[in-house]
Amino acid sequence: MAVDLGRVGVWHQAHKWGPELAAGLEQLGYGTLWLGGSPAADLRDAEVLLAATDSVAVGTSIVNVWKADPAQVAESYHRLEDEFPGRFLLGVGVGHREQSGEYKSPYETLVEYLNALDDGKVPMERRLLAALGPRVLKLAAARTAGAVPYLTTPEHTRQARATLGDGVLLAPEQKVVLETDKEIARAVARDYLATYLKLSNYTANLKRLGFSDEDFADGGSNELVDLLVLHGTAVEVADGLRAHLEAGADQVVVQQIGKEGPDLLPGYEALATVLF
């Protein structure tokens, strides 16, 4: 892997990012800042994070192949590489059937998109796929530096590592709430998960892991919610994050929910004291 990502990264959608949060997380020692929410093809949101920091890696997780022209994305990649050499990773994916006007042949579309990135000379070692199932995980191993799965569990991480093999990046996202009251934490988690548990690519993946439609009902079963959104003290949450690393992840990507912008920093600082 040409970019040093560190063992722990942070994921947020664009509206939660900003220069202050990015700079603060770099100072705390987090290795990669991941930008979600289907960043535009011009990659300006990633540029803001790169400009606000000195050396931390920045990645997209993910650019949506239905929304972002690959030729423009390739041009934007090279602009960022010229301005901030060795710091940017391009994560791409197919998004969600329920949220895309066009969703025909997603696997073939991914292959065509990677072909277009080849034409745009985006190096294989600087691009990643949002991969959940075995077929796309194998594509990630064959055509990119690795996989950035979202809404997964340590058991999925273990299975993904077996599918990817050694020497391929695996950086799963993990949501957390730093709250010791289980009922409060689960309420925050269920509110955040409500949309995700209606998206078929996530529910299909969770069913492969042994969950059922009953687990998705009424905001999610306690077992499912507690796996998808870790909660408790910083020490307890850190133990849950390490479970991904022990299962074969190269990096675990933390998403703290329930707060916004710079208000997230105290929680990340508490985690940093026990993770680093």
UniProtKB/TrEMBL annotation:
<dbReference type="InterPro" id="IPR011251">
    <property type="entry name" value="Luciferase-like_dom"/>
</dbReference>
<dbReference type="Pfam" id="PF00296">
    <property type="entry name" value="Bac_luciferase"/>
</dbReference>
<dbReference type="InterPro" id="IPR019922">
    <property type="entry name" value="Lucif-like_OxRdatse_MSMEG_4141"/>
</dbReference>
<feature type="domain" description="Luciferase-like">
    <location>
        <begin position="20"/>
        <end position="117"/>
    </location>
</feature>
<dbReference type="InterPro" id="IPR036661">
    <property type="entry name" value="Luciferase-like_sf"/>
</dbReference>
<protein>
    <submittedName>
        <fullName>Putative F420-dependent oxidoreductase</fullName>
    </submittedName>
</protein>
<dbReference type="GO" id="GO:0005829">
    <property type="term" value="C:cytosol"/>
</dbReference>
<dbReference type="GO" id="GO:0016705">
    <property type="term" value="F:oxidoreductase activity, acting on paired donors, with incorporation or reduction of molecular oxygen"/>
</dbReference>
<dbReference type="InterPro" id="IPR050766">
    <property type="entry name" value="Bact_Lucif_Oxidored"/>
</dbReference>
